[in-house]
From TrEMBL:
Species, as recorded: Kineococcus radiotolerans (strain ATCC BAA-149 / DSM 14245 / SRS30216)
Superkingdom of this protein's organism: Bacteria
Record's protein name: Uncharacterized protein
Amino acid sequence: MAGPTARSRDHERVSEGSSGRRTWAVAEIDLPRTTAEQVCTAFLDVMAEPAPWACIDAWSDYRDELPAEVEHAQTALQQLHAHRDGQDTGMGIGIDRSDPAQEALLRTYAAWSIHVELLSAAEQEALVTFHDGASSITAELTGTEVERLRERLAGVASVERLERLHAQARVRREQERWERRAQRKQQWLARLGWSPQRDVRRQEEELLCAECGHPQGAHPGPGQRDLKVCAVCVYEEDYELREESEMCRRAYPG
C-alpha cells in the first residue's frame, strides 16, 4: 500500500492543529500591490468572525503611489482618529469591523498601511498582522482557517508554518554562506598562484596530503613562491578574519 503523499501529510498536519492556533505566514514577501490587496482581502474575509476588531496605522511607505481611493481612505482614517480620540498621529486607529463604514476603510487601506492587526477584541493580542504594506503577513490560525485561506489563495500565494519558513531561510543562509566561503577560498588560492592539477585522460583530482587532506599543490614546493604552510590550512584557520593580508602573513611569515 502506497504511503501518504506530501499533500496528504500536509493536510494531516493542518488537521492536527485544528483545535488550537499555531503561527503561520504568507511565504511570499514583497508582493505586487494588486496581489497584496488580494491576499489581504482573503485574510479579512476568513478572519471576519474570529477577528471582529482591527488596529491600523494611517501611514504608508507607498505614499507617492497611493491610488485616489486609497489616499481618500487614509485621510478618512486620520480624521476618524482625530475626531474620536482627539489625536492626529494616525497611529493605532481602532476599527470596529461591525461598522460598515469603518470596515470599508480597513479593506481599502489594509494592503497599503505600514501596520495592521486583526484582533479578537480591542487590546487583545493580534491574530493577524500585515507588516509594512503587507510585504509580510503572519497569523495565528486554526487548521480550518488555514485550509480556507489556501483555497482562496491557490495560485496567488502560499500559507506555511512560520517555523518551517524560518528553517528554510536558515538553510538558504547557510548555503549562501558556504558558497561565499568557497568562492573566497578559490580567490585566495588563486592569489597564491595555486590551482588543482588534473590528469586530462583519467580526470582524477590531484593527490591529497596525508596529514591535512588538502591538495598537495597547496603545500610548500616548486612554484609556490616561498609558501611556508599549507595555503588551504591558512584559509580554514583564518578565514573568519576576513582580511587577506592576515592570511598572507600566516602563509609567508618570512
